[in-house]
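ok so I'm stuck.
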Amino acid sequence: MQASLLDVLLGHFDVQSPLSSVSERDQRLYSVMANLRRLFNTRQGAIEHLPDYGLPDLHTLYRDMPWGAEQLKKLLEEVVRKYEPRLTQVNISYQHTDVNQMRLIFVLRAKLDKKQIVRFQTTISATELIDVSPVRRDS
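replied:
not stuck anymore, here's the structure
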């Protein structure tokens, strides 16, 4: 099984993806995405024994837009490198800001288990939880 221990204990990767609904081949990918969602949606200081787990309060970064996007990119890379060891060669690029929806969109590119290249779109919104979804390969 490619799911993490936490995913197995919970019985799902997220509320819409029970373990049994995901093929054995894709479970590692879903597990990484679920971990990234938990990581990005946890505020630093919320876990007492890991005070730097998660992201800081993002309100100050929103105030500093568009310059805050580069700072946020660096923060995302730092926490992914530290708390998602299945990903290596992590590179995050800023894609764009949707001003009307108050969203920042980044693409995370990395190697999963040092061999498979994966890409995730990370959408950060002022009004919703941070979302992580796979990016389909370019044609």
